[in-house]
Amino acid sequence: MSPEIEKYNNKKWYDHSEGKVRKKRNPKKSVPLIILAILVLSAMIFFFVMSLFKMSDSYKNALLIARENTAVIERLGEPIEPGLIVMGTINVNGGSGYANYSFWISGPKGEGELYVEAVKQYGNWNFIDLAVVIEGEEPIKLTKKPIESE
User: Fold this and answer.
1) What mean pLDDT do residues 57-71 have?
2) Residues 140, 132: contact at Cβ < 8 Å?
3) Of 61, 64, 68, 123, which residue is most buried, by most CB within 10 angstroms?
């Protein structure tokens, strides 16, 4: 049987460079591994970006202000915990920057979305707008407070 016929019948071929019969690799078997690798890499990038948001001073202080606000505590209960996903942007360049994002917060009584808009000047964040929106209710405007950078 010629090597070409053997290649198709037995999924093997003759490697002329090494003088050996080799098994043909099936590319269909590697597709699920490639898809899995892409999904794992995407998840790693997603969690890395979310952790960058959550490490920012504006995020930490916005959450702290919401946790200490009596109107928010009254409607959501305690403890108030942040959601996993943060949507928006933070741009920082040295001592200046801009943040505009939102994330869900929840407590035993319900949940709401915390909207943050802040500007960083001379190393300190200042909230332009900070509000908790609970479905079916008026937004709860939170105290504007400068954030001391660490």
Assistant:
1) 92
2) yes
3) 61
**Residue spans of alpha helices (H) in the chain:** 3-10, 27-55, 57-68, 70-76
Tokens, residue 74: 């009254």
| DSSP string of 33-57, one letter each residue | HHHHHHHHHHHHHHHHHHHHHHHSH
Q: Which residue has the tokens 């979310």?
A: 50
Rounded CA-CA distance 10/98 in Å is: 64
Delimit the domains of the chain by residue range: 3-50, 56-141
Per-residue pLDDT tens digits for 3-44: 554 444 555 555 556 656 556 666 677 788 888 889 999 999
Alpha carbons 65 and 45: distance in angstroms, whole number: 29
Nearest CA among 114, 32, 103 for reference residue 71:
114
Band of the pLDDT at 72, cuts 50, 70, 90?
very high
Residue 81: which of 102, 67, 92 has the closest Cα?
67
